[in-house]
Amino acid sequence: MAERAIILFDQDNEPTDAAGIDALDEMVVFAPNRESADAARLQQALNHFPGISLAVDGFAGKRTSDALKRVTGHFLKGDPRAKTG
Q1: How far apart are CA 21 and CA 41, in angstroms?
Q2: With helix as H, strand as E and coil as C, how does the chain read?
Q3: How far apart (Å, rounded) are the C-alpha atoms in residues 79 and 8?
């Protein structure tokens, strides 16, 4: 992700902003029962933010969606808690 500038890191290897997370978030849909490589990459990226500790299992469920909300202010697409329309 860093090589493709999806997410940027500072000299201490901390994410510089949530913009890269938003780009990756576009590829991941709430799916707690379906494994996805994109979901695993999102979990790895979210784990770089202070206070977030996710299992990198590739299942985009409630905990992944909660972590995304903490970083970006919105839940994963398809999360029943997300506001639509």
Answers
A1: 10
A2: CCCCCCCCECCCCCECCCHHHHHHHCCCECECCCCCHHHHHHHHHHCCCCCCCCCCCCCECHHHHHHHHHHHCCCCECCCCCCCC
A3: 26
pLDDT in tens, the chain (85 residues): 555 544 566 666 665 555 567 777 888 999 999 999 999 989 998 998 889 999 999 999 999 999 999 988 889 999 999 876 5
9: its two tokens? 């890191």
Parse the chain into domains and list their residue ranges: 19-72
Output the CA–CA distances (angstroms, integers) from residue 77 to 5, 6, 51, 65, in the order listed.
Answer: 23, 19, 22, 9
Separation between Cα atoms, residue 81 and residue 20, nearest integer Å: 23
pTM over 0.70: yes
